[in-house]
Amino acid sequence: MFPFLERKIHSLLADKKFSEILTGSVWALGARVGATLVAMVTSIIVARFYGAEIMGIMAMINSFMSLAVVFTVLGTDTSILRLIPEHVAKYSVTSAFRIYRKIQYFLTSVAVLFGGFLFWGSHLIAENIFSKPHLSFFIALSSVFLVSLAIAVLNTQAVRGLRLIRTFAFMQMLPAVAKLLILVVITLYFFNPYNPVYAIFASCLITALVGVLIMQIEFKKKMQPLDVTCNMPIKEILAISFPMLMTATINLAIGQAGVLILGMFRTEAEIGYYDIAVKLAMLTTFVLGAVNTIAAPKFSELFHSGNMADLFYVAQKSAKLIFWTTAPILAVLIVFGKPILGILFGLEFTAGYWAMVVLVIGQFVNSVSGSTGYFMEMTGHQIAYRNIVFGAAVICVGLNFALIPPLGAIGAAIAGTVSVIFWNIGSLIFIKMKYGKIIGYLPFLNFEH
Description:
Layout: H1 2-14, H2 19-49, H3 52-73, H4 76-90, H5 93-120, H6 122-129, H7 136-144, H8 146-161, H9 165-189, H10 195-222, H11 234-265, H12 268-281, H13 285-304, H14 308-345, H15 353-369, H16 372-378, H17 382-407, H18 409-435
Helix pairs in contact: 2-9, 2-13, 2-14, 3-5, 3-7, 3-8, 3-11, 3-12, 4-5, 4-8, 4-11, 5-7, 5-8, 6-7, 8-9, 8-10, 9-10, 11-12, 11-17, 11-18, 12-15, 12-18, 13-14, 14-15, 15-18, 16-17, 17-18
C-alpha cells in the first residue's frame, strides 16, 4: 500500500504541468485541515460547556453574517482573484495595489451603510424572520462587526490573488485560531452563556486588522517607483464583480438555507444538531478549497493563453486528487458517524446522524465532479454557471420549506443534497456540451473524452 502511494506522489510531483497545483494545494490543504480541526475543537467546547441551544444561536449568527457580507463585498472577493494577477501581468504591482485599495475603501463605505441599515432593523429581523426576539441584540452586534468581516474576506482573497500561498494558509487559519483562543480565555475567566457569540465578533476584528497589515507589507515589498499603472473606475470593477456576486449569493443561499429556515420552524437545539452534521459532512470541502486555491488562477491562465489541452489535463488531474483525498473521509463518516458525534459532542448530538449521512451523499457527488464552479467562472462562463446555481437555489429553498416542517433537520439535509447534485451535474453537462469533455473523475469510468 505505502509503495503504491509513494509511487503516486512521486509521479504527481514529477508532472510539471500539475506540480504547481499539487505543491500549492499542500499548503492550502494543511491550513484548511488545521482550521477545520481548530473549529472542531471550538465546537466541542461550545457543545460541552454551553449546550446545543448556544450552538444553534452561533449557527444562526454565522449564517446571518455570511449572508450579509456577500451583499457587502458585492462579488469583489472573487473578481479580485482575476484583477490582481491581470494588473501585475499587464501593468505592475503598484497598479494591482491601487485596485485593491480602491475596492477596500469602497467596501468599507458599503459595509458602514448596509451595517447601519441592519442595525436599525435588527429587532424586526429577529422577530419577523427568525421569530426569536431575544436574538435582536446579537443581530445588532453582527451589523457593527460587518465592516471587519468584509475587510477580512477581501484581504484573504487578495493574498490569494498575489499567489502568496503560505500567507494565504496563515490567513485561513487565523479566524479559527483567534476564535478558539478568545473563547478559552473568556470561558475560564469571564464566563457568560453567550461567550461563543462574542468570540465570533472578536475574531472578525482581529482577522481584519492583521489582514490589512499583511497586505500593506506585501504590496510595499514588491512596488517600484517607476511602476506603470492603469486607473480602473469602480464602475468597471463592479461590472466584472456583479455576475460573481449573484453566483456567490445563490451559493450562500444554498449553503445557509437549511440553518435559516430551520430557525423559522424549529428549536435552537435542533439547529445545533444540524449545524454539527453540516460541519462533519463538509469536512471534505477543505480539500476542494485547497485545490481550488491554486487551480482557479491556473485555469484562467491556461484558458486565456489558449492552452486548452493543458487546461483540461490540469482540471481532470485536480478532480482525481480531490476524489482520492475525500472519498476515505466520507466513508469514515458514514460508518463511524454516530460514535464520532456521541464521543466528540455528546450523546444528544447523535440525533443529527442521519442528516449527516444525507449530506455526505451530496458531498460525494461534489467530490466526483471536480472544480466545476471555478472552471466555468475562470473560463468566461460565469453567467451560465450563475443560471445553473440559481436553478439549484430554487430547488433548495423550495425543498427546505416543503420538507423542514415535517422532517426537520433531515428535510434540510435532503434539500441541500438535491441542490448540490443538481448544480454539479448541470455544470458537468454544460462543460461537456461546450468542449466535448468532462472534468470530473470516478474510478473505472473514463471522463477524458
